[in-house]
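Example record used in the benchmark description.
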Amino acid sequence: MKSLLAVAVAAVMLLSGCATGLETRADHDPSQNFSGYRTFAWIAEQPMMASPEDMARVSPLNRRRIEQAIEKELARKGFQQVPQGQAADFVVSYTVGARDRLDVQSYPVPYRGPWLWGWPYFGHDVDVTTYREGTLSIDVFDGKTHQPVWHGWATKRLSDSDARNAAELIPQAVSSILKRFPPR
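Model output (structure tokens):
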């Protein structure tokens, strides 16, 4: 139970990340012509792609926040949402994840030697820090071919304050990701 709670908090923190340390990237099919895209729909009634266990780790409230942020950002870009099941130019899904990472910093050999106070430093210092990294990914599939055509994602080193500010930060993270859609 404690582990599940930690994962749920990490997922919330992942979604909230934008201000500091948010790194966004995107990839797309270069042969795809995005200029004809006008309408979008969700890929399924539940557009978060995840196993049932992973779905339980992200609160329904935050899933809805993500979906609303995606809808709002796509509408701001001029795309019109159509009901799921109707023909759309493209369909959208998303995934959320978090994992523990290690940050290893060492002081290499060139930094050994006399220090300002005159004593040589002969040790090799290694600092290891464990942290949580969260990822939010958004995927776009062509409505006619059903093939993936665009993938955007954001990663962030998570902090405790990210969970407290999820409602404000989720739209910022989604906006940062979708800034790269459609590709130019």
